[in-house]
Amino acid sequence: MSDCRVFEYVTKWNEEGKSPIAGAKMEMLCPDSTLKMFSTESKMLQRSVSFSNMALSCCLILPGDTTVVCSSWDNNMYVIFFLPVYFYSIAFGRQQDTLTGHDDAVSKICWHNNRLYSASWDSTVKVWHCSPTELGTKKHFDLLAELEHEVSVNTINLNDTYTLLVSGTKEGTISIWDVSTASVLHQLVCHSGTVFDAAFSPDSRHLLSTGEDGYFKVTDVQTGMIISSMATEQPQR
After folding, report:
1. Domain boundary at 127, 148, 169, which?
2. CA pair distance 97, 100, nearest whole angstrom
3. 104 and 83 in one domain?
4. Which of 67, 151, 221, 234 could make an SS bond with 62 (beta carbons 3.0 to 4.6 A apart)?
């Protein structure tokens, strides 16, 4: 068996509450980068879908619980369509579409209101509009905006009202963007080294970020000022 480790789980269940879908990002040396679906009743692996020759970086379940979008280090995003199979109560998966939209690894994806946000090591965040095709299950993606950065983007997140987007780069820069205008509101060097993650507070007034430098930092969204910083002994993800 290949030596692989799971980086991320999707903690959303399907409508029956029996089949959570887990997205596994494998180490670079692992040959079978896969998306796995498990049954909470049997505690058994139900389906494993492999569609890339490189590691998966992120996955999310679209509204309706039948489609999963995965991003990969091979520069692509994959749309996986899950259909219920009532015989044995097992679900099966097949690759529905491939979105080639970046020139380097796709590091993180987010979704809201038929819009896909993709961050990449090609120094961009791209905003895509998703619309169904005549076939019903397939989806068509149009590029709406491109948020340019000077270096590789490692993470992105949306606030709870989906009006702001935060991006974190491999050189420690945090950028806060206005989603409606695709314009940057604040840009600051927040960490020394890669920003591993960043997230808005529920009221969108503050931003928490973690990085390779081992710091937790809190930024005031309105002013762009760092208002709190706490050091740890190890990098925080």
Report:
1. 148
2. 10
3. yes
4. 67
Distance between CA atoms of residues 31 and 49, nearest Å: 13
Question: The whole model's pTM is what?
Answer: 0.76
With contact defined as beta carbons under 8 Å apart, do 195 and 209 qualify?
A: yes
Q: Are residues 134 and 179 in the same domain?
A: no
Antiparallel, parallel or unpaired: β 173-178 and 56-61:
unpaired
DSSP 63-127: TTSSEEEEEETTSEEEEEEEEEETGGGEEEEEEEEEEE--SS-EEEEEEETTEEEEEETTSEEEE
Rounded to an integer, what distance in angstroms lies between the CA atom of residue 208 and that of residue 4?
A: 30
CA–CA dist 62, 166 (Å, integer): 21
Same domain for 132 and 158? no
Per the structure, the count of domains in the chain is: 2
Q: Can you tell me the distance from the alpha carbon of 191 to that of 169, in angstroms, rounded to the nearest whole number?
A: 9
d(CA 102, CA 77): 9
Q: Mind listing the pLDDT tens digit of every residue in the chain (237 residues)?
A: 344 444 444 434 444 444 444 443 332 323 457 777 777 777 777 777 776 777 777 777 777 666 777 777 777 766 655 433 222 222 445 566 677 888 888 899 999 988 999 999 999 999 999 886 654 556 678 899 999 999 999 999 999 999 999 999 999 999 999 999 999 999 999 999 999 999 999 999 999 999 999 999 999 999 999 999 999 877 766
Q: Give the CA-trace dihedral at 69, 72, 75, 80, to 10 degrees.
A: -30
Tell me, what CATH number does 158's domain have? 2.40.10.480
